[in-house]
Amino acid sequence: MAVSGLLRARVGILLLPRRGIRVMSTTMDALKPLIAVCQMTSTSDKEKNFTICSGLIQEAASRKASMVFLPEAFDYIGGSTEETLSLAETLKGDTIQRYMSLARRCSVWLSLGGFHEKGPNWETDRRIFNSHVVLDNTGHIVSIYRKTHLFDVDLHSGVSLKESKFTIPGPDLIPPINTPAGKVGLGVCYDLRFPEMALALIQEGAELLTYPSAFTVTTGIAHWEVLLRARAIENQCYVVAAAQTGSHNQKRSSYGHAMVVDPWGSVIAQCQDGIGLCYAEINLPFLSRVRRDMPVQSHRRNDLYGKVAMNTND
What we know:
Elements: H1 2-9, E1 34-40, H2 46-62, E2 67-72, H3 81-86, H4 94-106, E3 109-118, H5 122-125, E4 128-135, E5 141-146, E6 152-154, E7 160-162, E8 177-179, E9 182-186, H6 195-203, E10 208-210, H7 217-235, E11 238-241, E12 243-247, E13 253-255, E14 259-261, E15 267-270, E16 276-281, H8 284-293, H9 296-299, H10 302-305
Parallel strand pairs: 1-2, 1-12, 2-3, 9-10, 10-11
Antiparallel strand pairs: 1-16, 3-4, 4-5, 6-7, 8-9, 11-14, 12-13, 14-15
Enzyme class: hydrolase
Organism: Pelobates cultripes
GO molecular function: deaminated glutathione amidase activity
């Protein structure tokens, strides 16, 4: 009960009635499905992280959200490489099984934004995938995207992250998947910086792009919102970005500001500080109007600069 009360106090929604409280309609418009986007602060305590995520998901389901988006590293964030690897699991492990049960019990789709999945040669190389797993409302896995662009940086602020030290780059992109919220193209965090990937997903029919993230504070302040809005504007799609926020341990903090951007580039929902949710209606007729009134895709000069194509290794 204490967790549920905390979550209700920290729901953040833009452009809605006073104090961020929204009165929910009992009749959902099928053309405007409601989604919920989560913000949390993962630590190395997997049980605590699950309790927080479970509370967020149940809160979203009670408000009739059709799909809930969790951030990268929703399962945990370790304090060292050794701890990160020691906590990794397979897709058949306890963590994913618990989320399958939760999706089924709440009858809601889940975007599990970045799961530490043991790689195929785990016993010999101790390397993992950063895996974005999507579950349907019966608890079945419908898609798995393994992060292709790995975050290897040394920032002037002193932050140094070498994801490739222990993470295997994903082998391919995944075609957009049909969900109650529309056709969703999957990415993870650093993928946001690569417009070619977004374009490839759009050309395969994506209506939403999602970038569950754990952006650093330095890069978040400078680039987070502008990159999300840019991907939405140039691709005329919704962009959904669940986020980690706050201090995970003595070495690492995240920027937060989970948000949803519409196809015109407007931020239509955003989380406040701390753990919480924001909600947005995905207005597919509006998306169609934007694309019809400004037909950017048909104006592309592929004869001059080629066409971005998706390689799925099929």
